[in-house]
User: Fold CRYD protein from Podilymbus podiceps.
Amino acid sequence: FDPRHYLGTRCYGFPKTGPHRLRFLLESVKDLRETLKKKGSTLVVRKGKPEDVVRDLITQLGSVSAVVFHEEVRERL
Assistant:
């Protein structure tokens, strides 16, 4: 969870992720974790800036050969 997603937007000052969306995200992550657990897997969940969290996970795991990510599409003004 990127803390920057819970701040106001640049243009309008509204939360990027309000309480209803946050609840949906938390319930979805919980459900995904439970589903993966039933299949013998797990889900790593972290709070922080992705560029820091991913770097720390790579360091912790030690033998990472590739990292794939999706960048969020941002508004153009």
